[in-house]
Every structure is written in C-alpha cells, then in structure tokens.
Amino acid sequence: MKQMHSNQNDSDTQAAIIKVPMRKIYQLSISAFVLLLLSVLILSCSNKKKGIDESTSLNAIKTSELTNEATASIQNYEIVPNEKVCMVNDRFMGVPQIAIDVNGVTYYGCCDNCVEKLQKNLDDVRFGTNPLNKIKVDKALAIIVQDKSKGSVYYFSSKEEANTFINKLGV
User: Across 81-160, where does the E strand assignment appear?
Assistant: First the structure.
C-alpha cells in the first residue's frame, strides 16, 4: 500500500508541477499580448505625427523650390557691358567685340560681316526692341540684359526698365 500511496504522491506532484508552468505560460502570453497592443498603439501615434511632419516638410520644400526658381530666374538675367555683345547677332559673347564707329556712335560686332551690317544699318540692325513696351532702342545707347541660359540679349532705354524686366521674370 505504501507503494500506491507513493505513486499517488508522485502523480499529485506531477500535476502540481504541470499546473505551475501552464500558469506561467498563460501569464507570459497575456503580458506579451499587452506589450504588443501597447507597441501598436505607440507606433500608430508616432505614424500620425510622422504624417504631419512629412506634410509640413513637403510644404516647406515646395515653398523653397518656388523661392529658388524665382531667385534662379532673377540670377539668369543680368545687365552686361555693351562692348561684350555682338549687336548684329544679339548675343552676349563674354569678351570685347570689334568697336564700329558710325557717325560718332559706337556699336559692337563679332566679325567683318557685322562691321558692314552695322555701318550700312542693313535690316535696321542698329536697333533692338524693348520687350516691355515694344519701342525701338538704339543698341549703342541701350542698357543690355543677358539671358544667361540662352546667351541672347534684350535692349532697354534705361536701367530702370532693365531692372523692371529682370524683376518681372522673378515673379
């Protein structure tokens, strides 16, 4: 009988041993589930904030791009010295051109062909058109603005008109 009793104690001990780990596993599972829920909650809150931050950042980038475009547009145009412009080709050449005296007024050209055209005023080459008001401007007396992206030039009667033109392009 003692053996039975001993076996019964063993089975009770085994049952008690089995119950304890199951309880711990259950508690750990609940703890892990609660942690998982908290993590999801925290991450979802940070994603909402991130979405707002990204939206704000995108708006700042767009504003910055517009400002940069306007600045680039203004920087794309500049008043240049007349002697560095071929007044026949209406191009900024970057180096002094051939000075051509016509009745005491100096024009500039890049080659012998330009000299002849300016001296004879072929095709009314000594005059340019102001892009603001479409009035003819004597190129020798003009304020000249270069479009740096194209190398072409525009002629103005005054520095104020030239600056108005440059500023309009920046808007």
Answer: 85-86, 91-92, 98-102, 105-109, 127-129, 136-138, 143-147, 153-156
